[in-house]
Write a structure and sequence with these properties.
disordered C terminus, 293 residues, alpha+beta, seven-stranded mixed sheet, 15 strands
Length: 293
């Protein structure tokens, strides 16, 4: 009977747009409101990310006309059975997960509480700094990263007077000593600064659902205003594995680098970055000059 019951549910990896009779057991690992462009105080739609027991993910959403119907029924971190929904191709410019498809609620969509499936609260897909520098991940899908906080800049206020927001640059280091630049925006700036002020010692940062970008061939990541999750020294399997990989590396060196201060270059860096390059052909044009007293 139990096996028959379990077969009544589908896996996210099987979902496509061929029917609307899919039935899923999922955890809502992210839920956020996207405000109206013209009026930020109004909700345009609710976006969600579902994850099933196989750790596969899919985006889901419902529009402003259904907020009153569905918002009181669904919460981040809870388990549900979801059925009677439509499936369309995910054409978002920036996707929360790799899944080709996206779930859309309609008036007949069913949501029921569920507690019979075990799904990790935060199922991470950590991307290594090496893969990022090798440009292996695509830039149209959010990624997850982990690293030790090594430096941060002062807070900048940017934007027009009515739409000002805070911006701060931080530097993360991986288990190999490689560093990656991160731009934090909005509330994420205050969240990190408050934690730094109140928690002395090494801080390990996990950033989930962040944007990957490249500038002049160099990578950096940036949080999304609504989707991203910032976790600091968060006890989880990903943190345990990461700490095991770095051991006691720099455990006593917890002073953060001031990213507003331009560092003095080493002799090698000074030569490679600041010395004008010449080619052999340039020297072939040099003529001998003799000075006569």
């Amino acid at each position: 009977m139990a096996a028959s019951q379990s077969r009544r549910f589908n896996l996210i990896r099987d979902v496509d747009n061929t029917k609307e009779t899919w039935r899923l057991k999922v955890q809502v690992i992210r839920l956020y409101s996207v405000p109206s462009w013209l009026n930020p105080k109004e909700t345009n739609r609710i976006e969600m990310i579902f994850c099933d027991e196989k750790k596969d993910k899919i985006q889901a959403s419902f529009g402003e006309k259904m907020v009153k119907t569905f918002r009181p029924l669904i919460y981040e971190g809870e388990l549900y059975t979801i059925s009677n929904f439509s499936v369309t191709e995910n054409k978002d410019n920036l996707k929360a997960c790799k899944n080709k498809w996206k779930i859309n609620f309609h008036k007949n969509t069913s949501i029921r509480d569920c507690s019979t499936v075990e799904i990790p609260k935060y199922p991470f897909e950590i991307i290594s700094f090496e893969d990022i520098f090798d440009q292996i991940p695509t830039t149209n899908v959010f990624i997850d990263i982990i690293g030790v906080l090594k430096g941060k800049s002062a807070v900048d206020i940017v934007g027009e007077e009515r739409k000002q927001t805070k911006k701060m640059k931080i530097k993360l280091e991986n288990e190999c000593g490689r560093t990656l630049e991160v731009l934090l925006w909005g509330d994420y700036v205050e969240l990190l600064n408050h934690y730094v002020e109140t928690h002395p010692g090494r801080i390990t940062v996990i950033l989930q659902f962040v944007k990957l970008k490249y500038f002049n061939g160099l990578p950096f990541v940036s949080n999304s205003f609504y989707t991203s999750r910032l976790l600091l020294n968060w006890k989880c399997e990903a943190l345990t594995c990461f700490l095991a990989s770095i051991g006691n590396l720099d455990d006593n060196n917890t002073t953060l680098e001031d990213l507003n201060v331009k560092r003095a270059l080493s002799i090698n860096d000074d030569f490679s970055q600041c010395t004008n390059r010449k080619y052999i052909s340039d020297f072939l044009e040099i003529k001998e000059v003799k000075y006569v007293n």
